[in-house]
Amino acid sequence: MKVPAVPLSFRLSGLTLVRIAAVLCGLILSVSPPARGDENLLGYVYGAETLPRGKWEAYQWVTLRTGKESGSYRAFDLRTEIETGLTDRLQAAFYVNSRGHRITGVVGLDDRESLAFQGVSAEFKYRLRSPYLDGYGLALYVEPGYNRVDKVSGEIEGEFELETKVLFQKNFLEDTLIWAVNYTLEPEWALGGEEAAEEAEHEEAEHEAHEGEHEARRELAEELTTGVSYRIASRWFIGSELRLHSEWPDFSHREHLAVFLGPTLHYGGERWWWTATVLPQIWGWPDEEVPGLQLDEHERLELRFKLGVNFQ
Amino acid sequence: MRRGARNLHFVALAPAALVVAGPVAAHAAIYLSVEEAGAAIFPGRPLATLLATLSPEEAERIEERAGMQVRSREIRGLRTAQDARLYVDRVLGKHEEIVYAVGIEADGRIAGVEILEYRETYGGEIRQAEWRAQFRGRRAGDPLALGAEIHNLSGATLSCRHVTDGVRRILATDALLREREAAVRP
Q1: Which of A283, A280, A163 is nearest to A223 (CA)?
Q2: Closest to A83 in 3D by CA, of A93, A73, A91
Q3: Whose CB has fewer CB within 10 Å in chain A, the N or C terminal residue?
């Protein structure tokens, strides 16, 4: 069944948003002065450094998620970010997010081809320790956000999330080898939406007959990520990232766990930088359809590309 | 091709296109030559070439004293007739190397520090005379750490840290070379 995922206006809004983001990045690249500041050496793992006061950065993220147990599944997560240092220890950022899906013949999901405005979020990161002054880096991170497109199905819903992280960083070999660890807890609350409301109504009707099978309206995502990045030459870093992600519906029990591991390449140019990560799922639970992989809530492979531009 | 497919392709390719279109050649910021640095630190004093090679054992002793790795055993710089010396060295910046020079008087005290090449745009504040002046008068064996004897510059922490460590290495190198020369002096 072909599902028109979102009204045309939303599709156009999402597409327009992406095009505007790309054009803005192009303009920024062409007019920004030579500059470089805080950079993401890894695609998924954050370091503990913050932007200096008064400095600005712009990011464009693209994450491709692909591969289910059947059919054809591709999803794009797009994030456009502007970030600034409020003080030397506190940085803030604002995100505009979009999400696209192309789903064909995947068991349990409607066929879909969509690109939609996903939501907005804000980020605050406070550095407690600097890896260059204190021997290790430590920072606290909080990101409240609103999402309106389901990550897996692409259906429209409403969700508020509060992503909180503790970020640790330790440098070795005169700062040529960087190790970072992030621990994330992210409670999410469904706010409803057209399809979500219909589904909730449907679930409520069937609840008595299928008690315990209803979809949770709140959830806790837990994630542990760690990675290393090594400077192999001027401007070039290679690394590896490990990501363990699990979710707790109703904050009560672990529903699934997926483990990803893959390489990262980072280039820091004089005016901008980019980071690319290839992150295949190496283990997942429960693995009902494909042995050793969790493909209901996750995919076989994630590819992430970040482009960052620093300007004064 | 369906409209949605075109859209997704555009989304995927737009950043990649920026990357392909975007690379620019890095432009090294060279502020001083070695001779200019020597003239700035030892004005009016004639300078001759200084070349020395450290043995592996000497490099190890320097590493023990300075607490950091000796990246090159080939020492180069300038020296005055009164045996004041200017050493040229390199430390890592965020992505490129920072080239700097340390002038040391014959009594082992730092006469001045100059930044010769700096390619990192952020952190260029380490070229400020006020920051570099903190090193004057210090000698081998003195405590010399960022955040203690040397104050940090916001936004230039990595550069401050590495240059401070590098100066400590140069002080240890100078002290060892003078010890070596004193040992063979008749």
Answers
A1: A163
A2: A93
A3: N
Q: Looking at the DSSP assignment, which residues form a beta bridge with residue A245? A: A223, A258
3-state secondary structure of A125: strand
Model pLDDT for residues A13-53, shown as the tens digit of each residue:
444 545 544 554 454 444 433 333 468 999 999 999 998 88
In angstroms, the CA A135 to CA A123 distance is 25
How far B183 CA sits from the closest chain A CA (Å)?
33
B33 φ, ψ (degrees, to nearest 5): -85, 170
Give one DSSP letter per residue of B16-60, joined into a string: HHHHHH--------B---HHHHHHHHSTT--EEEEEEE--HHHHH
How far, in Å, CA of B32 to CA of B76, rounded? 16
Interface test with A, best of B9, B90, B121, B151 (most A CBs within 10 A): B121
ipTM: 0.77
A15 CB within 8 Å of a chain B CB: yes
Give me A113's structure tokens.
């081809």
Among the listed residues A34, A115, A38, A139, the one whose alpha carbon sits nearest the alpha carbon of residue A83: A38
The CA distance from A177 to A261, in Å, is 19
Q: What single DSSP character describes residue B146?
A: B
B8 vs A53, A88, A115: nearest CB: A115
Span B40-81, pLDDT tens digits: 999 999 999 999 999 999 999 999 999 889 989 999 999 999
Size of interface A-B (CB pairs under 8 A): 118
Angle at B152 between CA B147 and CA B157, to 5 degrees: 110
Closest Cα in chain A, distance from residue B161 (Å) = 7
Decide if pLDDT at A184 tops 80: yes
Q: Out of A36, A234, A271, name the one closest to residue B24 (CB).
A: A271
Q: What is the pLDDT of residue A195?
A: 54
pLDDT band at residue A312, thresholds of 50, 70 and 90? low
Parallel, antiparallel or unpaired: strands A256-268 and B85-92: unpaired
Q: Which of B112, B72, B110, B77 is nearest to B92 (CA)?
A: B72
Q: Which of A162, A163, A214, A160 shows the shortest CA–CA distance to A189?
A: A160
The pLDDT, as a whole number, for residue A215 is 55
Phi, psi of A35 (to 5 degrees): -165, 150
What's the rounded Cα separation, in Å, for the pair A272 and A311?
9
